[in-house]
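User: I'm putting together a teaching handout on how multi-component assemblies are represented. Below are the sequence lines for each component of a complex, exactly as they appear in our records. Could you produce the 3D structure of the whole assembly as structure tokens, so the students can see both representations side by side? Please keep the chain order the same as the input.
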Amino acid sequence: MATQAGADTNGQKVSERLPLSAEEAALLAGATLTDRAIQAHPRAYFAAMRKGDPIHHDKGLNSWLVTRHEDILAVQSDPVTFSVNKGYHEIQARGMHDEFRNYLREHGGGYFPDAIMSDPPYHTRIRKLMENAFTAHRVKELEPRITAVVRDLIAAVADKGHCDAVKDISVPITIRIIVEQLGLDPDIEDKISRWSVAVTAQIGAMQSREQMLENAAQIADLQNYIIGKMKERETDPREDMISDLVHASVTNADGTVEKLTFEEAVSLVRATLIAGNDTTATAIGNLFYVLVTKPGMAELLESIVDDDRKLNRFVEEHMRNEPPVRALSRMCTKETVVNGTTIPEGAHMLLVYASGNDDETVFPDPRKFDIERLNLGRHVGFGGGQHRCIGLALARMEVKVAAREIVRQLKDIKLAIPESEIQYTPTVATHTIESLPITYAKR
Amino acid sequence: MGNLKVIYTDVNGETRSFDDVEEGANLMETAKRHGVEGIFGDCGGGCACATCHVYVEGKWFETVGPPDDIEYAMLDMVTDVLKDNSRLGCQIKMKAELDGIEVTVAPTSGM
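Assistant: Of course. Below is the structure of the complete assembly, with chains in the same order as your input.
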């Protein structure tokens, strides 16, 4: 919050904590993000934290939830103290690390730590290597192809008058696009959805041992598939992203050049295939959700769909209003005071982007969908700092094209089940609708 | 090491000049290398965020030219600090005609 309430004993600024109502205090004392009901509808929990205990220890999750916009920015700006490498790999298969890793070594060609989920300076050179594939100008060149994919998928269900907006449209869109870009076989599209769920579940902090092993089996299958494709491209490079990654080299600070190791390349192909796929599908699913539940949204989108500037702003406000990735991990590598709260060494933290995007002191009337906000780009739906989402331009483009094609092909879109029956994927990391039956008329 | 000159006024108002900038280097990378306050370059130079926003001063804006549509879309996300001479530093590549260019780091978009 912008209000400065004072300073701690080290002279650091500490922003104001407001008194909580009895109801809010009870919520903070009793609620946890591991509760599926809270996961589905967390706004009241986040709001109570933002108000009175902005860096709150969630006992059920054993994690510190960073909920104010300013604190999320502060943590993101220090990627050494607040480690993504340790935060990500610690929450992965939490409590069952060794079994998870050994399973992949035995069945999945190896355990490959995520090279991009690392800390500087290593992270800096890995990221540099990936950035050229995802520039906004490169993504713009893909727009016609993305449009063709989206148009075909929506056209395939337009006549029926009903479909599952998540399973029939949102998930297939992002899978088909990444399969084409990486250069994978179209017939694996069905598997990718299962693989994506499995990888995301490992960081969701909600798995039983049986689920962890089922998901590990899917990840092993995924790794065996991509290792096969990478070996093909080693000898027979093509114009696709797998070939780019297999043959990529990185330049060190001293000017020496080294190739990525095979293990690093496997992890980066896996990340490219999964990371942007599930999350972008979630963003498109959430777009359908707001169109059918938030009054005036369908009319708003219809009125601005042919105005490129306004459509860009609509997409950005959607990323603020319904961020698909609602929280990601860090680990505190040394005892640190953040805005008056002492975070112990080794503590797990979640940067709660969905809360930062609702911070009333940065986005007045945050539940209002307002494409005229003067600080649209200030949202943290893509994270920020050195770990800001690398695929953000591609994600924006996919959501934008989806928004455009939905309006051009469908009208009178309605939710086909009661809103209270919408099920969310059990995870702390994303806010993902599992299934969204809708009805509509063809335009 | 190059021999082109860039003058930055950082977000705190401090002006610093660097005369060893190579042709082809962009103004985001150059600022980060020298620790110019207020330039972050989160997206790595992909024209996909607005954390290297600068105002190109005086006559230099004419030489640099206006942003293209893709760059404008990003600048439009920080409307509260957008000016007629706004550009993203990552999209300005140094060349002989820009030798001596003066830019001011834009403040962070806020409320």
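A couple of points students might notice: Chain A is about 50% helix and 10% strand. The radius of gyration of chain A is 22 Å.
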